[in-house]
Amino acid sequence: MRKILIIGAGPAGIFTALELLKLGSNDDITIIEQGRLIENRVCPKSKTKECIHCKPYCNITSGFSGAGAFSDGKLSLNREVGGDFPSLVGEELAQEIIDYTDKIYLEFGADTHVEGAEQTDEIREIRKSATIAGLKLVDCPIRHLGTEKAHQLYYDIEKYLIDHGVKVLANQNCSDIIIEDEVCKGAVVNGERVDADVVVVATGRKGADWLDDMCRLRGIGREAGIVDIGVRVEVRNEVMEKVNRALYESKLIGYPKPFGNKVRTFCQNPGGFVAQENYDNDLAVVNGHSYKEMKSDNTNLAILCSHHFTYPFDDPITYAQKVGELVNMLGSGKILVQRLGDIKAGKRTWQKELSQTNLKPTLVDAVAGDITAAIPYRTLTNILNFIEQMDKVVPGFASDETLLYAPEIKFYSNRIKMDKNLNTNISNLYCLGDASGWTRGLMMASSMGVYMARQLMKQQ
Q: Residues 267, 447, 432, CA angle at the centre, nearest 5°?
């Protein structure tokens, strides 16, 4: 009987264990998670009305089911969305695994309705407008779990794993990976050595910097990947009404002049709420939630600019963190928000001005200020030019009252070197999900976990 240690209880780790059970594994499986079990993950902000910086970890970013499940709970059902895992294992196989993984989500209560699954005249018109604007519209059916519904779904998965013999241990801090003669032997958890025959690291975006440190310290093959830095945009629902109705989430990609960096929309939340997440060292970043039943008057979405650094710099995660820290400094530790019209006018936004327009911020404790004083010029120029292109697809998107929140940062720039069987240069060590740099989002991370389990079963 092998001892399998899974570090991180996000979608990649969860679905590794889940698929092992479904395939009849007799392995001794343990999942350790630095945060809490899902039934104990509660953000007090609903009562306090402002972030109180929970210790030792933010309940939004840490805990069973990971950070993504507590944002908006959207499953992208197209292999073109969610990272580069398909390029590793093959596009057809990746799509087959996505379809299979989607059925598992349905078994645990996911909504059977799929957003954007039908090719309508409205979608064709949106694509035509995007093409004229120099943007690419990526068709991607979305299964929306909803933030509150995802909580129940992942609780049911957690209970299933425990009931079937998987040890799911919360509040477990992994400080090191034990590697001897290029073979992984286990990990150091809560200060003690834990031996294992197989170690699967699936620490998510929250643990991407930790994994990067492990790579440098323990000689795990890696390469500097892409880091995404951007803003979260909020507009009235009326502005996004056509896109929301036809697609629910518009996935648009562009390469705006003059720099030509890839800029994309991400995590669109019709009737949603802008939210704050806290990472290590009290770094506050912005995200978005979308509930199934509770709705706001606004739609929010991220606009992310991708940066791929070259020699001699190879630490993009730290770069992104520094950008976030600078924005936080201007916001006195909180999320910064600015009206687009004020950016165009070359002025900061004042708190009183936010109450003088049709658009009311859903992140009520965001601090009005000047994000242009903190976001790098190249990044901000790309984003502002992309917004102007978006305005041709969604008239009113670039209006003066449009809100930009910062910083929105996705920590998955570390890219672990591995072959198509997910083998790293260290025997018995595997790295999955967003922390590995190969996935971005719930569905692709879950699918990579399924694939991992199948590879492990081949080794029995």
A: 90
